[in-house]
Amino acid sequence: MRVLTFTSLFPNSRTPNFGIFVLQRALHFARSNGNELEVVAPLPYSPTLLQGTAFGEMAAVPDAEEINGLVVHHPRYPLLPKVSMPLHGLLMYAGCCGLVRRLHRQKPFDCIDAHYVFPDGLAAVLIGRTLGIPVTLTARGTDIHTFPSFRTIRPQIRWALRHADGVAAVAPSLSRTMQELEPALEKVEVIGNGVDAQRFRPENRTEARIKLGLSQDEKIIVSVAALKPVKGPDLLLNALALLQEKISGCRVLFVGQGPELSRLKALASRLGIGEKVDFVGSVDNDQLRYYYSAADVSCLASRNEGWPNVILESLACGTAVVATRVGAAPDLLQEPGLGVLADPSPESLREALQVALTRSWDPDRLVAYARRHTWDQVAQRTGEFLRRAIAQRAATVYAASKP
Length: 403
Prior knowledge:
Blueprint: E1 2-6, H1 20-30, E2 36-40, E3 43-44, E4 64-67, E5 70-73, E6 76-77, H2 88-106, E7 111-115, H3 117-131, E8 135-139, H4 142-145, H5 154-163, E9 166-169, H6 172-181, E10 189-190, H7 205-212, E11 219-224, H8 233-243, E12 250-255, H9 261-270, E13 277-281, H10 288-294, E14 297-300, H11 309-316, E15 321-324, H12 329-332, E16 339-342, H13 346-357, H14 363-370, H15 375-401
Parallel strand pairs: 1-2, 1-7, 2-5, 3-6, 7-8, 8-9, 9-10, 11-12, 11-14, 12-13, 14-15, 15-16
Antiparallel strand pairs: 4-5
Helix pairs in contact: 1-15, 2-3, 3-5, 7-10, 8-13, 11-14
């Protein structure tokens, strides 16, 4: 099967950690059963003269590059942040269709596998209809949690869902939301993510703390997430302030970057916990296991989620998880002995963290559970999903051709 993965959620030479989960799914699918895969990861056009600025960061990304053995194309399309949002999918289609047409002529694709329903999925469906290629969509979170609330975008998302040949979500909760959004959907597959057990594995806690320059005596909570409101870093800060009254010597490591950094630092200062919080910034994916392994517990304080990869990553490193009851978190932590669920509020998070930090966990059990969720299993389910979508398109075309 020859597949085109179409998504802006993909690593490139400038942001190697971005969209790792899509890269992993693509890599394992490409390596299974003789599949062939090429990637189109569009980027907004940015003038070269703006290199070095936040807006011009992507100008340095080449038009095509090889990432982990995959050929990745980066066609550009026009976009004015915020102003062009209602036209985002159409602009992406206009900037990418010509390239996909050329690639398809050189060696035809059996289908387009698009990730993120808007704008990527809308653009992919338009390209598929233009070129006669079956298209599948996979929803991953914000594309379904947030974008349908915009009056101009909601009908575009519904149209894309109706006209895709197959629709999937990374979490059962997303699947239900999609069917409520577009009742015409007969079925939404649920294909979660896996975990790379070679990359995420336990390290000795004492040695990990020495490597990272951390105290051996403190109770350490690690939060691996972008510093955005949806990820709830403010909730975790407020929970830490409450937790100090119950358990002394707690510290939170925020691993990730984002637009809320300054505001969060100010909040930590106002709460009187500035000295108990470290904003580590972005960490290479290969180094994350040291942060998970050094921690007593990891915390996901999100207000909304799709499939939170950090849960499996933490468990694969032998570290229990405190997570809010959003997205696939309740599904991932439904077995006892893996972590503690909380509501997305400071009080509930404080209570869950207190429980997690005062009980004993079985690291071997956590690791064994995580390793049951492999990328090879995801690749197999992906192949089955794509084959069904291709067959469905063929049956539809055949039925339409009969007199």
